[in-house]
Every structure is written in C-alpha cells, then in structure tokens.
Amino acid sequence: MYLGIDVHKRYAQVAVMDESGEIVEEVRVENANLDDLAQRYAGAQAAIEATSNYYHIHDTLSEHLDVTVAHPKELNQIADTDKKTDRVDAKELARMVRLNSVPESYVPTDEIREARALVRGRQSLVEHRTEYANKVHGLLSDHGISEDVKPLTQEGREFLRELSLPTPWKSVLESYLEVIETLTDEIQNLEETIEERAGSLEETQLLMTIPGVSYYTALTIYAELGEIDRFDGDKEVISYVGLNPVIRESGDSRIEGELSKRGSGRVRWLLVQAAHTAVHTCNDEYLSRFYERLASRKNSQKAIVATARKMLVSMYHMLDRGEVYDPPGVSA
C-alpha cells in the first residue's frame, strides 16, 4: 500500500492507494490519531510534505511506515494537477509514492534539530527586539525628537527614561523599554546556551578555527547545512545556501547574473559578515589575498560575497574531511 498524507495544523487528509493505482481509502484523521492509522498500514510506504510541524508527525509515522518527506517547492513544480484541495493533494502524494517520484526533502537528526531550535530561537528574539526598537524610534519621531538614540544600549535606554513626554506616551515608551530589556536578557541567556552547544560539537569546533567565525555563526552553519555527507560536493552546498550566480545561456553567450538566493538569507548574511571580519579585522592571508585580488577588478560588495562563497567552500571541505582551517600558506 501507498499512503499520501496531506498534513495540516490539527488534522491530516490521507489517501491510500494499492499496487494497481486504485484509491482504496480516503480519510481525514486528527494528527493525534495518526499513530493508529500508521499501525493499521504498518510496513507501507508513505509521503508527507515538509510543513512547519512535520518533525513530530514524521517521527510518529516512521515507527510503522516507510516515510518520505516531500520538498514543498519541488513538489508543486512536478505535480500534474492544478487543483489544490486536501483530497487531491493526498492522492497526488500517494501516486508519487507508488511511482517512486517524490522529490525528497532532508530530515535532520535530533542533534541538528536542537541546534536549529537554538539559533532560530535567538533570531526570532532579535527580530522582536528590533521591532520594539523601531517602535521607540517611531514614538520619538511622532513627538519631534530627532536625537540619534540607541534603545538597544543601556545608555540609550537611560537617556530615554529621562525624556519628558506627555501622558500616555511616557507610559508607552516605558513599556517598550521594558520589553527590550526582557528580550535582551533572554537573548543573552540563549547565547550562553548556544556558546556551550557550539563548544561541545566537533563540527562547530572545526568551523570556529576559521578567523571571523564565532560560536553563533558556527552553530548556525552547522544547523542549517545539516549532515555534510548529504551533499555531493562544494558546488551543491553553494547552491543550497544560495550563493551561486544565476547562469543565463543563449546561443554561444553565457552570462552570470545575480545570486540565486535560495535557502536561508540569514546564513548568507552571516557568511558575508564572517568574510568581512576575516578580511578586515583578522587579516586572514588566504581570504584577504582573494578579496583584494577581486576588489581591484570588481566592486567591494561583489568581492566580499565571492569571499564568503570561498569561505563556505572551505567549510564544506573541513566538515567533509574532519579537518581544521589550514588553507595553503596560512597557519590556522
């Protein structure tokens, strides 16, 4: 039997297909009861889409079924239907399982899931803190206050608390500052956990031997790449992160366009920041020579992005070989 399971927040639509391609059962099941369904069809092949809540469901189903997780974007590109309903999606998944044509998505290990939870959790807190800092700036602007105040610093918050604002804006400002301070404390607590986790993993210890790569950057790269042996080479890693240029070919011409920007924008940003640090602060010989050679022919932005890409290539080979950073002519 082949099961297509279209998962939603609280329920899943299931289509069961036999060897001949006939649908033998269609049923909507509460997610909490998927274990019973999996036991009933124990040993069958199944496919689910990689939604936001698929980890737990994948693990539950995998106790009894051979589960493939489908990549959402690739699934939409190759599905042969333009009708999008739960029943249609479930049947399409079942059909693809039967034909062994499911575009498979990576399922991270528990260790990598934990690392992702830490770095993505920190990112979420930072984004919320920035949101409240922007609210503070908006409130000041509404009252004609043009001073360049930094509410994310202790000094900036002390200055803001001394401002004379009319009621109720004084209370609103105080509330914003309290939220910022609470989020700052939580970010610091999480960063301590991230630093501890990065120091305990062989992969992140290797990455931190690169000048400019902090414990947070190292754990983020490890978490977002996952197990390095799932990539066939450094070009595949570059493409996964979205640091590869889009190639346009026409006749005999070949033009490299903008970056594809697939994958995590946060990872690309961190790599570029790490490249800046390696070149401009740590003066790493290997990356600095590469950057300066490109910067003399191209603009500095293109040169630093290319340097970040070269750093990522080094990261791939370091993780693949279990080696510390030691490029030609440079001491780690």
Could you list some keywords that capture this structure?
two-stranded antiparallel sheet, 13% strand, 5-stranded mixed β-sheet, alpha/beta, 332 residues, 55% helix
Description:
This protein is an alpha/beta fold and about 325 residues long. About 55% of the residues lie in helices and about 15% in strands. The strands form 2 sheets. It has a 5-stranded mixed β-sheet. Strands 6-7 form a two-stranded antiparallel ribbon. A hairpin with a 2-residue loop joins strand 6 and strand 7. Helix 5 packs across helix 9. It is globular and about 70 Å long. It starts with a strand and ends in an 11-residue tail after the last helix. About 30% of the residues are buried. The model has no long low-confidence stretch (mean pLDDT about 90).
How confident is the prediction overall: mean pLDDT?
Answer: 89
Which strands sit side by side, in order, in the main sheet?
3-2-1-4-5
**What is the 3D form?**
globular
How far apart, in Å, are the first and last alpha carbons?
55 Å
Give the arrangement of secondary structure elements.
Layout: E1 2-7, E2 11-17, E3 23-30, H1 34-40, E4 45-49, H2 54-62, E5 66-70, H3 72-78, H4 86-98, H5 110-142, H6 154-161, H7 169-200, H8 202-207, H9 215-225, H10 234-241, E6 245-250, E7 253-259, H11 265-281, H12 285-295, H13 300-321
Parallel strand pairs: 1-4, 4-5
Antiparallel strand pairs: 1-2, 2-3, 6-7
Summarize the model shown.
It is built from 13 helices and 7 strands.
